[in-house]
Specification:
The complex is a heterodimer.
Chain A lengths: L4 E3 L2 E4 L5 E6 L6 E7 L6 E7 L2 E4 L8 E4 L6 E5 L8 E8 L9 E2 L3 E5 L1
Chain B lengths: L3 E3 L4 E4 L4 E7 L6 E7 L6 E7 L2 E5 L2 E6 L4 E6 L8 E8 L8 E2 L3 E6 L1
Classes of the chains: A mainly beta, B mainly beta.
Chain lengths: 115, 112
């Protein structure tokens, strides 16, 4: 079974540009999470999808971040326009829908560098 | 104040030593407690999870939770150089359907 897949693995863009990150969860997993780790800080929650619906987006930092999950399969996270403080590693995780006894499985992350 | 506190280290011990990693937390709603291991340029990999208070053992790894003290621990016995990684504690009120709250992670090096 394939794990959570994220790409690109690394993205370097200039301030003001737009970047789109993609996450493919484990097949059949309806819960999809985005997290972010900025340098020197802990991994922090961004948002949670259940299928195509946003269940919790309390961690999204501002309206420059737009997450979508059309069709309830893969998800994208767009940053527009990117700012220096958006640099960090963005992780995606997934679980099955009835996941009260299953931990979250993480992808290897996208390392985002804003110059 | 952070919801989860974890000493970032770094922690360096000789091969074969017993390693103790710890986290404290403030939110009494947390019911599930996880330890993830993260190698450089990789995602967090689940080591163990525990529900509520108690101990759980898996090979050389033992997880302990003391909810009365809001304190969790991970012990590694007979540590190996391959155990060198960053260890992250994480917690949630629900295991699979709610957000995880992470500690900062402890960077561990096992010296041959």
């Amino acid at each position: 079974e394939a794990g959570v897949t994220q790409f690109p693995s690394h993205s370097v863009i200039e301030k003001g540009q737009t970047v789109t990150l993609r996450c493919d969860p484990i097949s059949g997993h309806d819960n999809l999470y985005w997290y972010r780790r900025v340098m020197g800080k802990e991994i922090k929650f961004l948002l949670h999808f259940v299928k195509e619906s946003k269940q919790d987006e309390s961690g999204m930092p501002n309206n420059r971040f737009l997450a979508e999950r059309t069709g309830g399969t893969y998800s994208t996270l767009k940053v527009q326009p990117a700012e220096l403080e958006d640099s960090g590693v963005y992780f995606c995780a997934s679980t099955e829908f009835w996941a009260t006894n299953q931990p979250q499985h993480f992808g290897d992350g996208t390392r985002l560098s804003i110059l | 104040q952070k919801e989860v506190e974890q000493d970032p280290g770094p922690l360096s011990v000789p091969e074969g030593a017993i390693v103790s990693l710890n986290c404290t937390y403030s939110n009494s709603a947390f019911q599930y407690f996880m330890w993830y291991r993260q190698y450089s340029r990789k995602g967090p990999e689940l080591l163990m999870y525990t529900y509520s208070s108690g101990n759980k053992e898996d090979g050389r790894f033992t997880a302990q939770v003391d909810k009365s003290s809001k304190y969790i621990s991970l012990f590694i016995r007979d540590s190996q150089p391959s155990d060198s990684a960053t260890y992250l504690c994480a917690m949630s009120a629900d295991l699979g359907a709610q957000k995880l709250v992470f500690g900062q992670g402890t960077r561990l090096t096992i010296n041959p």
